[in-house]
Amino acid sequence: MIIPHITYCQTSWTQTCKTTLKPTETVYKQALKVLDKRSNRHHHHCDILAKYDLLNWENLVKFADARLVFKILNCLAPT
């Protein structure tokens, strides 16, 4: 339920520098830990990504960009 809020208009702001997106990436990692009901300090988010077969932040950004390009090339993007 939180992922759509974090990734809203992601393709618009993914071209900014990494330091600007760092807080959003941190919230994403915290949301993963909440999903798995783990404390923020003791567990690494990579274990949770593998457990639920989810994308890490960088791959999530790449996937969103690839999906947008696909929609544009196939005339499926909103006008």
Describe this structure in words.
The structure is a single chain. With 79 residues, the protein is mainly alpha-helical. The chain has a domain at 20-73. The chain is built from 5 helices and no strands. The chain has helices spanning 3-6, 10-13, 18-35, 45-52, 57-73. The chain is elongated, with a radius of gyration of 14 Å. The mean pLDDT is 85.
Overall body shape:
elongated
> Alpha-carbon distance between the termini?
27 Å
Largest sheet: number of strands, sense, barrel closure: none
Tell me the radius of gyration.
14 Å
The helix-strand sequence is: HHHHH
What is the strand content?
A: under 5%
* Uncertain stretches: none
Structural class: mainly alpha
The number of helical elements comes to 5
Mean pLDDT: 85
Give the beta-strand count. 0
Helicity, as a percent range: 55-70%
Descriptive terms for the model:
single chain; 79 residues; mainly alpha; 65% helix; elongated
Helix and strand arrangement:
Layout: H1 3-6, H2 10-13, H3 18-35, H4 45-52, H5 57-73
Short summary of the structure?
65% of the residues lie in helices and 0% in strands. The protein is built from 5 helices and no strands.
